[in-house]
């Protein structure tokens, strides 16, 4: 069953797919556990779609920002289609969870938002990667280029093995390169990051002015493409 579902997800256009049993979410904070959305959840099916490498080689404001935003509806569409396939094929329940927005939690003073569940932690629990010092998911094949979404299901499927860490020992490039000094190893001050990153141009189009922590990472393109 696991391999059949994974093949369907990849056939729908995802680049990666992994499985995390509900027992792996024991450390999820209250209000952000899969149980808080779907009480009968037994497994979280996690999938991701990768940005093209070329978007890291150009000024980020329009090109990177535009296509990075496009990955959100892309992965959400895959989630919805995969959920239907799981339900129709296995007579199961499958709850797709938006990969980014909408969400409820917002601290206006700190400009801090939180997704319905942490997709990055779900991906780590499903063996799709490890967390980088800049708090981004690092995947062996796709580096930090993945946008991740998840499906909660009552199917009983074993978890995939955890991934090996990818952050290079002693590397602090993302931390020291952050123009807003928003990163502290393993955490990010969203207020500082948001104020430095998001804006609009003269025409009113949304812009992303900074993706430094992504673009300076030596393993941004994956384990086999370590860039000095």
TrEMBL record:
Coiled-coil region list: none
Residue ranges occupied by any 4Fe-4S ferredoxin-type domain in the UniProt entry: 155-188
PROSITE patterns: 4FE4S_FER_2
PANTHER family assigned: IRON-SULFUR CLUSTER-BINDING PROTEIN, IRON-SULFUR CLUSTER-BINDING PROTEIN-RELATED
Identification of the protein by name: Epoxyqueuosine reductase
Native source species: Acetobacterium wieringae
């Amino acid at each position: 069953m696991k391999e059949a579902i994974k093949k369907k997800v990849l056939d729908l256009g995802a680049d990666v797919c992994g499985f995390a049993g509900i027992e792996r979410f024991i450390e999820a904070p209250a209000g952000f556990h899969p149980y808080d959305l779907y009480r009968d959840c037994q497994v979280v099916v996690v999938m991701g779609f990768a940005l093209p490498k070329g978007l890291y080689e150009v000024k980020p404001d329009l090109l990177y920002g535009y296509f990075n935003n496009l990955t959100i509806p892309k992965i959400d569409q895959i989630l919805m289609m995969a959920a239907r396939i799981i339900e129709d094929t296995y007579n199961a329940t499958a709850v797709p969870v938006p990969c980014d927005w909408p969400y409820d939690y917002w601290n206006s003073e700190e400009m801090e938002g939180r997704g319905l569940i942490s997709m990055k932690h779900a991906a780590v629990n499903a063996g799709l990667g490890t967390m980088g010092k800049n708090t981004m998911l690092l995947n062996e094949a796709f580096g930090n280029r993945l946008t991740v979404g998840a499906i909660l299901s009552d199917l009983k499927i074993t978890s995939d093995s955890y991934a090996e860490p990818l952050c290079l020992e002693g590397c602090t490039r993302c931390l020291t390169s952050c123009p807003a000094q928003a990163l502290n190893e393993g955490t990010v001050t969203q207020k500082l990051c948001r104020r430095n990153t998001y804006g609009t141009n003269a025409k009113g189009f949304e812009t992303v002015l900074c993706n430094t922590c992504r673009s300076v990472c030596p393993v941004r393109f994956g384990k086999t493409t370590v860039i000095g």
